[in-house]
Structures are given as structure tokens and as C-alpha cells.
Amino acid sequence: MEDRNWSGNETEAEGLDSLFLAYREACPDPEPSVNFMPAMWAKIEAREASGNIFNHLAKALVTAALGASVLMALLTASSSQPAPPLDGSYIQALAAAHVSELEPLQVERISELEQ
Predict the structure, then answer these.
(1) Torsion sign over Cα 55, 57, 63, 68
(2) According to the 3-state scheme, what is the secondary structure of the chain?
(3) How far apart are the first and last CA of the chain?
(4) 33: Cα separation from own chain's centroid
């Protein structure tokens, strides 16, 4: 393709027309063939297939992360016990925390903790 100076005597429209003409001469239209559309679809599907591997992997990772989050939430909710309300002194809070350690029917031990 030859080098042209477009700022010469030609107007902008004529310069653009000659540029398009030079481009058409340099890059002719491909000849249509019987296999044009099948080859085009094969190229498109090849591009989509390479992207599908990453899409499947991403979807699998998101699903696994969601399942792990739900499982951890269920385990956390089932293992935690609600704390008793603290309506009193620090000693009463300690006594309430250690009630499960006390043996049943030993009232004197409860009074020892409250003192």
C-alpha cells in the first residue's frame, strides 16, 4: 500500500473514499465456500468450550463454599448454648456458670459459691 498525504488538495470525503478503496484492494473479500458456516461455528464452539472449563470450576467452587458455610453455621448454632441472663453480682454470674459442675442435692456448695 502506498503512503499518501491526506492533507493535500483532496477533500476529506474524497480522501476517506480513496482510503476505503485502498483497504478493499489490500484485503479482498474471502471466497464463500460450502464449509464456511460449519467452520465458523466450529471456531465459535471451540472458544466457548475453553471458557466452559473455567465456568464449571467456578460454579463447583462456589457450590462447595456455600455448602461449607451452611454446614459451619449449623454446627455453630447447634453447639452454642444461650448464656443465662446476668441479673446480679459477679459472684452470682460465676455460680450460674458453674451450676452444671455442682452435684445434685448439695445446697451447701451453692451457698459456698455465693459467699
Answers:
(1) negative
(2) CCCCCCCCCCCHHHHHHHHHHHHHHHCCCCCCCCCHHHHHHHHHHHHHHHHHHHHHHHHHHHHHHHHHHHHHHHHHHHHCCCCCCCCCCHHHHHHHHCHHHCCCCCHHHHHHHHC
(3) 103
(4) 43
What are the cell numbers at 18? 480513496
Contact yes or no for 110/95 (Cβ under 8 A): yes
Q: Which residues of the chain have pLDDT under 70?
A: 1-10, 49-51, 80-87, 98-115
62-89 tens-digit pLDDT: 999 999 999 999 988 877 666 656 567 7
Separation between Cα atoms, residue 52 and residue 54, nearest integer Å:
5
Count of all residues that appear for the chain in the document: 115
**Which grid coordinates belong to 27?**
484485503
Q: What is the pLDDT of residue 90?
A: 77
